[in-house]
Amino acid sequence: MADQLPSLLLLPPPPHPANRAALKAAFEPPLKAAISRLKDEKADQHASILIVGLASPILRGTSLRQKSLSWPEAQSVVAGIYSIVSVICAQLSVPSHMYAGPGSVDVRVLLIDHDPSAPPPKDFKPAIEPNNTVVPDLATFASAYHPWKYIFHTSNEPGYQILSTYLKLAEPVQTLKQDQLIAVQGGLALNVAPTDRSQSSQQTEPHNIMCLGGTFDHLHPGHKLLLTAAVLLLNVPEKGTAGPCRFIIGVTGDELLKRKKYAELVQPWNVRAMSIMDFLSSILRLSKDGWNGAEQPKLDSGSGELVSRFRDDTIEIQCVEIQDAFGPTITAEDMDALVVSGETRSGGNAVNERRRELDWRQLEIFEVDVLDADDVVDGPTKTQDFASKISSTAIRQKKAESRI
């Protein structure tokens, strides 16, 4: 991303409760404004990249090494935002998958831990202080994510409050011109205080080794949700204290995809694996040099493996080529948990059945929410129809039809 500056959309905390209708009311206006602006940025041959930074008090715990989050709540909010993004892009005829070229907008949602009620720090100096999760606090985000092409913010009180704090934190690392700061319409947010905050969001136990499988062709919002949800479960060790936590991604080999619809347009394995690494780097990389300090993935040539480490080697991402539905889940016993979608739920159950036959411990299964249009689109829209429009198959079909 160093050769092309992304833009940032800073969003205030989501409404409570954060159901799809409430998320739409709060976030559709700013998302639509930012995407509409960027889709017309056709100065070069690249897509516009928009990082959506959702700043909210997502983490609990006072110590850096004892942070925790509620995975069901976190992934649900991410799913809601990607649902809104997908609908907006469909309405505006804007391609939303990665590397889609000029006129497309590659949206990447990033969670930032920030309590708006906390006083801003005084005499701040740039500092990157990672914790035991992949979620940075606002100070670390400001110190590590820069420079930006544009910074979009909502034109309401919560939006200006977060922008003011962010600009104080970002001032030492990027000088921003006034025309880079773009106010966009803020949405409506209604909050109902939970009767018992301690019971409203049970914290999720993190894991040292996560795994996920899929084709990941033309990486789109559904893939981005899966990858984000998986890394939110990682238990990140302190630098120098242990080996890295690991995220193993089984990426279907080219040979298995020859019978797919429009198979000639399926991206090669190495392109799909590099797309995954590119996307994950925008969530995991932390460098005082900003985009210029991004780690380069290491391709193990000829072996169907792509490996990259982030955050001083505390996180290892490994893409491996798989030739069946199970991949490394039944060849490596040392795994903790598996992330699935509604479509791959049966595959997760099959994995555990095979592991049971091997007398191996069962993987904990985490299922992400679906990208749901029912509470996002005005009018009768079937979620199944909506999902089919943003699938890899639909993307290949559109490419095939454009060549006729």
UniProtKB/TrEMBL annotation:
So which domain of life are we looking at?
Answer: Eukaryota
Its GO biological process annotations read: coenzyme A biosynthetic process
Which SUPFAM superfamilies does the entry mention?
Nucleotidylyl transferase (SSF52374)
Q: Which residues form the Cytidyltransferase-like domain?
A: 212-398
Query: InterPro entries under this entry?
Result: Cyt_trans-like (IPR004821), Rossmann-like_a/b/a_fold (IPR014729)
Gene Ontology MF: a single term: dephospho-CoA kinase activity
- Protein's UniProt name: Uu.00g025900.m01.CDS01
Organism of origin = Anthostomella pinea
Taxonomic placement: Eukaryota, Fungi, Dikarya, Ascomycota, Pezizomycotina
